[in-house]
Every structure is written in structure tokens, then in C-alpha cells.
Amino acid sequence: MSDADRASFNRRSLLRAGTFTGLAIAVSAISRGASGQASAPLKIGIIGSGHIGSTLGSLWVKAGHPVMFSSRHPEELASLVQGLGDLAKSGTVAEAIAFGDVVFIAVPYGAYPQIGKDYGSQLSGKVVLDAGNAVAARDGEITTEAKEEGIGLTSAKYLPGARIVRAFNSMSYRFFVSEANRAGDRMAIPLAGDDKDALNVASTLVHDAGFDPVVIGPLARAKDFAQGAPLYNQQLTAAEMRQRAETIK
């Protein structure tokens, strides 16, 4: 489907949806996304507009989703936003959370306790795609906590009430740049979460970014594709990843 056809499809989908907005649109679009058709637009707020945040946000904008990139200094995102066109905008973290039907977090993991403290009430009830990795040299003591308790469950502790799906943390952003919408079998992206509808929304956004979603299991299984784990840094097809995941249950 061409970009022009995709945009037309998305506009028609919104008109048909009538009063259904936000997550209701996302869930109703899952079957279309899985079959290779465009999903209806979702507003995405991005916390952290570095390599991963800007890369995934750009892919979602190109797929027809409105995206707000955020930073402590939103004015520094002007060139990124201008280069992406009308569907992209910039704002503060609070503005991005309020804007998004879905929130994508891509910041150093050591910032999670502060994010929870400052924005936990705003994130509660939101679908949150969590791409952070705990790196000892950068993030300090929380790295030990994430290893002992599991990184998915640690995220849930600091972001209580958020409908968390671990996603896009399992490899360098360079692979998201080079492998999105590749010819042949797509590259698989592992997901873990406890909320079925949130997993459906995340799966749609993985698909729309140009990859195949593979749900590994509940949030506790996010440890299986954390840094150093068997599914980390694996550029596999969906079938290969499912097979590998079965061996480490």
C-alpha cells in the first residue's frame, strides 16, 4: 500500500469510527494491522527524543500516526519536527503525555523513579511502551534492582497504574533504521506485558513501524529480552523468535 493510499485509508477509518477515539480505535484496528493493512491513527507521545525515540517516532509519523516528541528543551527538537511534516510536533514531557493515546518512553533507566514521581498520575491508565534498559555505568543502583526483580516488574513498580508493554529495548536503534519494512520476512520485535489490550495496541505500532511483533509473555518475561538475556540483540524473524522463546521458558 502506498503512503498516499495509507493516508486515505486512515482518514476513511476515522470517519467510519465516528465517536470512537483513542484506544478504542486502536483495538478495532488490530485485525487490519495484522493482515498488512494500515491501522487507524493513534496519537503517540514520546518521552525521550534521542536515538531510539526520534527513530521510532519518525517511523510512526511516516506510517500516518501523529507524534509529539518531548524534551526538557522542546525548542531543540525544531529541526526534527520540521523535517517530518504536519503530523509531528514537539512539547514538554507533560504535554506529550497529555497528547498521547500511547506514550513511548525511551530515556536512561535511572530516570524512571523521577518520571514516576513527576508524571505517575498522568501515566496511570495509559498504554506505555517501555524501551528503557538498565545500564550499570550510567544508571547506578536501579540496575541491580532490575536484574533481581526483572526489568518489566521494576518498571511497573515505578510507573504504577500504567499499562506497560516492554518493547523496542532489545537492540540498537541502528537496526530500527536499517531493518524497518525490509524486503522478505520482517525483523521481529519481542513484547511483554500483562494487559491484553495494551499488547494489541503495542503490536499494531510495532507492525506500523515496519516490524513483526512477537508477544513473549507477561511482563515478568521481559527479562528474557533484557540486556544480556537470550533474546537480546537477536535479529530474528517472527518464526525464529517464537521458536527461540520456547526454548527458554
From TrEMBL:
Gene3D superfamilies: NAD(P)-binding Rossmann-like Domain (3.40.50.720). PROSITE patterns: TAT. The keyword Lipid biosynthesis does not apply. Signal peptide: none annotated. One of its GO terms (molecular function) is oxidoreductase activity. Keywords: Oxidoreductase. Coiled coil: none annotated. Pfam families: F420_oxidored. It comes from the Bacteria. Residues 43-133 form the Pyrroline-5-carboxylate reductase catalytic N-terminal domain. This is Pyrroline-5-carboxylate reductase catalytic N-terminal domain-containing protein. The lineage of its organism: Bacteria, Pseudomonadati, Pseudomonadota, Alphaproteobacteria, Hyphomicrobiales.
